[in-house]
Amino acid sequence: MVDSANSLFGPLDILVLTGLASVVIYYFMFRKKKEIPSFKKLTVGPTLPERSMSQDGTFITRMKNGGRNIVIFYGSQTGTAEDFSGRLAKESNRYGMKAIVADPEECEMEDLSKLPDISNSLAIFVLATYGEGDPTDNAQEFYDWLQDGGTQLDGVNYAVFGLGNKTYEHYNSMGKYVDRRLEELGASRIFELGMGDDDANIEEDFVTWKDKFWPAVCEHFGIAIVGEDISMRQYSLTVHNGLEDKLFTGEPVRLGSFKNQKPPYDAKNPYLAPVRVNRELHKSGNRSCMHIEFDISNSKIRYDSGDHVAVYPVNCMELVEKIGKRLDVDLELAFTLTNVDEDASKKHPFPCPTTYRIALMHYLDITSCPRTNVLKELAEYASNPTEKEFILKLIQSSPEGKELYQNWIINDHRTILHVLEDLPSLKPSIDHICELLPRLQARYYSISSSPKVSPNAITITAVLVEYETLSKRLMKGVATSWLKEKGPNKSSDIAVPIFVRKSQFRLPFKPTVPILMIGPGTGIAPFMGFIQERHSVKAEGKPVGETVLYFGCRHKSEDFLYEDELQAFKDEGTLTKLRVAFSRDQKQKVYVQHLMTENGEEIWSLLDQGGHIYVCGDARHMAHDVDEVLQKVVTSYGRMNASAAQDYLKKLRSRGRYSCDVWS
Fold first, then answer.
1. Which of 69, 72, 90, 92 is closest to 82 using CA atoms?
2. Helix (H/G/I), strand (E/B), else coil: 617
3. What backbone phi and psi angles, to 5 degrees, belong to 501?
4. 533 within 8 A of 331, measured Cβ to Cβ
5. Catalytic residues, which ones?
6. Distance (Å, rounded) from C-alpha 654 to C-alpha 406?
7. Do 252 and 268 contact (CB within 8 A), yes or no?
């Protein structure tokens, strides 16, 4: 074997093999290894809006790093509280202070106790009250934290401005509660609670409060005004070319989410629902009320009777074109607005990049009355001294200025377009207009269907809004005028962006519990869902409790909504009693509260059996009048004095037996 091996490997072979072995040993043991680049695995998902707090620090850390001493928390459902917060932050610069605006939902609120670590620090809370005295969605966790005990806040300076509506029973309850609770936790109130009334002039209320608030801040911290009251741009403009595939086209958050729809669907990711039914409910007359059904077959959206559906509307194209023509701009121009404050939580005022046309159609509120801060910034663009002087008078906080603003802007309902038309020397830049106008908000409607009957459809009942202003201009509701053109055999079959918002307006868990529903006009909407649900239970052979509806309209022959459906429900027994008030079919007007007074004993009997009361519709008059009738019913037939009757109804509310879904 040895001789055989030697014959196979000669001296040269051994030398070659030795060389190869040396190379291999060097390669694996002595060579300096070349680094292989590592790549982080990316997870592709929806683009979320910039969070108020960066991932690497709390709001306290951000305040310290950015030299800020004021934090402004907002609780906002429609954007007004957030807008007011931004205005306060901007004004803080006049007093040598710097502020950040923060969403409490994205903050660790127990860190409030660390605020005294920052010199001359202050927390401002701008909080709206939503629904029946509830916090807004983004302030719910903060409210729960305060309810659960919170943290001792000794040394924390604070002030609160609340936003509410006096037509609601729980006016500004969130602002009142937070103002009181912070004091209980040891914080120091440096200025009185401010309260804005959206039923009157919330802009005036806010301006009046903040004009007194800032001097109080200066006095408390011993500081003086260090800057002039001048306009400062908050966003810088970038114009784009060749970004056609990267432009937002109306999506609320994620680019391309309308083209590539993925559940779950919510406010940040609405579902594009086809309109499969859009029919007129009024039989005659010059008014219109629409029954609209959204198809949710493939969405996996779930809802309950009594929930709300939100619709993202689109502004009227004609108005957008008029603004573009008035400002002499190319509406197809692509642009981005970027916050000049690098530490700001809100990098863009709306999804960018986009075009001016898309911004005006989908993202900006161009039909509401401009607030005084908007007019103040626009005044600088007036080339006519008389017109500039007029605008400056509009924004004065004097009684004369407030009256002029109330009459010329609010009472005449002048929009940004109307202001531009009536003051011809006013020529602001389109990008500044886009910076100043508030966001176009979703519109909420009570769902008028039941998932037990229509699991693949969501129905709404909506009155078309159209009226002439005192300045002889025709105003149209943004959402209803847009929805009017949607559906089969309509001029537009474009799907509607929607999402469902859960409600506490619920049927009793047991279908045998009696219910009393009071809903004139479109207030009938949720009750159609309630009745459908009880009809479904009855069709299954199960017992259903007494179901009573009080409905009101002007004329039986004109606007008796769902007359045929209601009569059918009554005939087959689901609807026990149907009381209808036709307010203008006789000389003296008759409303639902008159019919309730006539049937007081019947109502008390229902309540005495453990029945539930539901009220839906106008908060300013109807809901208030209905509550007064209920107090009289309880007083008369329950044999209680006025005080005891009020307590009785309060207990019904606290136990979920007296529920309201009302609007002003």
1. 72
2. strand
3. -115, 125
4. no
5. 446, 616, 661, 663
6. 38
7. yes
